User: Which sequence fits this backbone?
């Protein structure tokens, strides 16, 4: 599996929960965060406490998440701009005129975006990619989609390695494409990469037929999780939803 | 750089808008599944899987846009021209879902909007442009490259406009939509030129070796057979 996958092997309660329960919980929790009114700063604080509690149970250090949350930075930049470019009534902060509406919108994006990334990271860190795809299938995602996704995950590393070898070969022959007008060699390389990927797909198809491919992936039988595991799995999301509900009621 | 407005994060849109576009994305991907199965029959899974892996790998490749600024391909128009609109949309959509779930790239509630913009709107617009200009594409190699360039440029700009549309429906407000649209379209025209050049050269490289693999040209062969 690709080295950049975020999965951190572990044996905690969070790791052992069925993947589809975790997917439902993650989507519900993020939806709860997004539905929370932006004025209720305390609710976002409570959500953060819930997420940190899940990390503690999962045994994943906080620093691990902090380092990977930087993926969000482009949106933080957008959010930081909003107070200055926003319209509506303006107020002075430290002598700089900022838009009230823009500041609220910027805060909203930073708070919800950060919590969203942290929740996504929690799901990715505690669930093996293979289990995530099996979970999607249990959530009635068409088998064709999950089969394509699992084949994609299986081969993406092969294709990235192929691209790396082609790049190395190009560099060995003196290529140095730093500017757009030098990108022709890269583009031709991408064309060749497509050919090799497609032809590999044709070979994979024949190999699959030779092994008795019937059109669907054989799924390991799994007992449906009991109500208790469902409840345990979605409890963080229920807490987030409760915070959202109270915040909606208060404001 | 091209990811700035594309892999939207959580908190940009409100909950009803997120759910609305999640429904749009589910319907669109469902249609793409049916279409892809018609195009590829029992070879769908391995071939679409490898095309998706290709799109994924290509999105990791950075290419220089300006000195010091790099972008990466979205690949929607490229996949649609090479593998057909259904397979293209399906592959880009699956790449986005996997990026959100396994790599925390793009917000979970924004997933519907991201799939709608990049996999559905962008790919559809790019492919429609390519089909509209098919006459040019089949005439000469230069025509094919020009069509691929235009399709990829339109793909990128339409995906950015999709973001503006979603922001207009359920965004956090605070910015004038005209200003947002101008800024985003400006940036994405630049990115789209890079995307277009790479797409054109890539399609050219494939057409030179295996023209039978270029979906856009294959349609022509099929019609010709039908006429004859």
Assistant:
């Amino acid at each position: 599996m690709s080295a950049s996958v975020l999965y951190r092997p572990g044996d905690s309660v969070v790791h052992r929960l069925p993947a589809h329960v975790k997917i439902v919980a993650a989507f519900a929790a993020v939806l709860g965060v997004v539905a929370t009114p932006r004025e209720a700063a305390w609710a976002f604080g409570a959500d953060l406490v819930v997420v940190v509690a899940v990390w503690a149970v999962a045994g994943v250090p906080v620093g691990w998440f902090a380092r990977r949350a930087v993926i969000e930075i482009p949106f933080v930049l957008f959010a930081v701009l909003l107070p200055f470019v926003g319209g509506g009534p303006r107020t002075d902060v430290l002598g700089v005129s900022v838009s009230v509406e823009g500041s609220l919108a910027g805060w909203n994006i930073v708070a919800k975006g950060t919590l969203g990334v942290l929740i996504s990271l929690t799901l990715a860190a505690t669930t093996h990619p293979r289990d995530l795809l099996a979970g999607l299938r249990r959530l009635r995602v068409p088998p064709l989609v999950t089969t394509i996704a699992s084949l994609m995950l299986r081969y993406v590393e092969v294709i990235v390695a192929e691209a790396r070898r082609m790049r190395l070969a190009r560099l060995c022959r003196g290529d140095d494409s730093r500017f757009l007008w030098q990108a022709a060699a890269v583009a031709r390389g991408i064309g060749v990469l497509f050919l090799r990927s497609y032809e590999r797909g044709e070979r994979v198809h024949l190999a699959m037929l030779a092994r008795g491919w019937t059109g669907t992936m054989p799924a390991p039988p799994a007992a449906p999780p009991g109500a208790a595991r469902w409840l345990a799995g979605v409890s963080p999301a229920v807490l987030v939803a409760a915070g959202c509900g109270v915040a909606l009621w208060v404001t | 750089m091209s990811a700035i407005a594309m892999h939207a994060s959580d908190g940009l849109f409100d909950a009803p808008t997120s759910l609305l576009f999640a429904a749009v994305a589910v319907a669109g991907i469902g249609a793409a599944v049916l279409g892809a199965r018609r195009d590829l029959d029992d070879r769908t899974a391995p071939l679409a899987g490898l095309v998706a892996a290709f799109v994924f790998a290509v999105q990791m490749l950075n290419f220089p846009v300006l000195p010091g600024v790099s972008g990466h391909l979205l690949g929607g128009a490229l996949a649609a021209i090479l593998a057909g609109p259904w397979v293209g949309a399906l592959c880009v959509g699956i790449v986005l879902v996997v990026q959100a779930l396994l790599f925390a790239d793009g917000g979970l509630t924004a997933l519907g909007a991201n799939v709608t913009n990049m996999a559905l709107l962008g790919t559809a617009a790019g492919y429609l442009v390519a089909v509209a200009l098919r006459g040019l594409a089949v005439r000469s190699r230069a025509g094919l490259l020009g069509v691929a360039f235009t399709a990829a440029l339109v793909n990128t700009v339409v995906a950015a406009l999709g973001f503006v549309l979603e922001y207009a429906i359920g965004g956090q407000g605070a910015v004038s939509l005209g200003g947002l649209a101008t800024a985003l379209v400006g940036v994405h025209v630049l990115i789209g030129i890079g995307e277009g050049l790479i797409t054109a050269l890539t399609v050219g490289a494939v057409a030179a070796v295996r023209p039978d693999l270029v979906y856009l040209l294959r349609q022509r062969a099929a019609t010709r057979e039908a006429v004859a």
Notes: The domain at 15-227 of chain B is CATH 1.10.1760.20 (Arp2/3 complex 21 kDa subunit ARPC3). The longest strand of chain B covers residues 62-66. Confidence is low (pLDDT under 50) at residues 1-5 of chain B. Chain B touches chain A through 79 residues (CB under 8 Å).
